[in-house]
Amino acid sequence: MHPAQVWKSPPAPKRTQPPLTDELLDTAERQLGVRLPESLVQLLRFQNGGLLRVCFPESRNYSISHFLIRGIGPGSGRIEKAAWWHEDPDFPSRPVGAEWVIPFDGDGHWDLCLDYRRSPTDPSGLRTDPAIIVIDSELDPETFVGESFDEYLGQLVPAED
């Protein structure tokens, strides 16, 4: 899927980060301890986070209202390990291995995440090739979405305006 098919235009200023540089990407990956999927990086190089023109089909929406992908940068709403279940180790819905589950969309009750818990590491020690899951505090604690970011992208369909 071409990035122009993914992002809403024009970009929403409060939902985007500054243009993605190699330095920003390298810093974020080292802080997270992971290598972000190449297809996600390509999307973020085109537009560094924002609202989507695509969504999950009604028949497979995982009970979430997925409408954005967070970017990489200094602003709020960025890809980081800062979900509600990262903060509270005693939270009942906290996933096992939470430090390797990184949200890229969410509303406080659910998070759509890169799941690196079973991922291999590259020669630099960063985890690679995450699966995609939903963490939900109210329904199923954890729902599998896809084996890869590409598989997740393949499920998305044009959103109705």
UniProtKB/TrEMBL annotation:
Superkingdom per UniProt: Bacteria
Residues covered by the Knr4/Smi1-like domain: 19-155
UniProt-listed SUPFAM superfamilies: SMI1/KNR4-like
Name the record gives this protein: Knr4/Smi1-like domain-containing protein
Source organism (scientific name): Mycobacteroides immunogenum
